[in-house]
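Same chain as my last thread, 187 residues:
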Amino acid sequence: MIEIKPHFVRSGRQIEEKYGVRNWLELIHTEKQYVNIDNVEEVYEIIHDDKFSTRHIQMLFTITYDQEVIAGFNVPSAHDLWLTYLNAAEEVINYGESRRQYGIDPYIIELKSLNQEFLHLSIYQEFDRTNKCVDAQLPYQAFLVSLLKAIQHFYTKMNNDYEQSFEDERIEIRVESLICRVVNYPI
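reply #2:
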């Protein structure tokens, strides 16, 4: 089973205030830096910050497969990661592979269909392909459906529960269409 969860990233100031630390970097890449999208109280703290904007959401997706952490809190967070993953999923569905910038940091995310049953997910430093944060072979259909449903969940939560709107209202239709294509994909 694949489980994919979107998380917001707390700002340095928010970390220092919440945990009473003087240097927020002490908690970087730990669970304390992140807030699950379903944690209503803590998400409200983030989205009601003066600097919050749906145009650039700093976030992270955690990915587990058969209870093994594939992408955890050690993977760098990035701006608008939900859209990066959505575009990568669409490209791998349409063309069998995707290679995209992972946020604004020098990281790359690659998805590559291996044989219509599995795909390869890789996140690595742009200038050093050997320095990989994520390097995993996952079931094609299960991964893509889980990813798309996580994006759908994020988008729905933001619009409906947190009343944060995005410029492109066709995202829901796009995600639904991709899920249908993956589910009906002949294996």
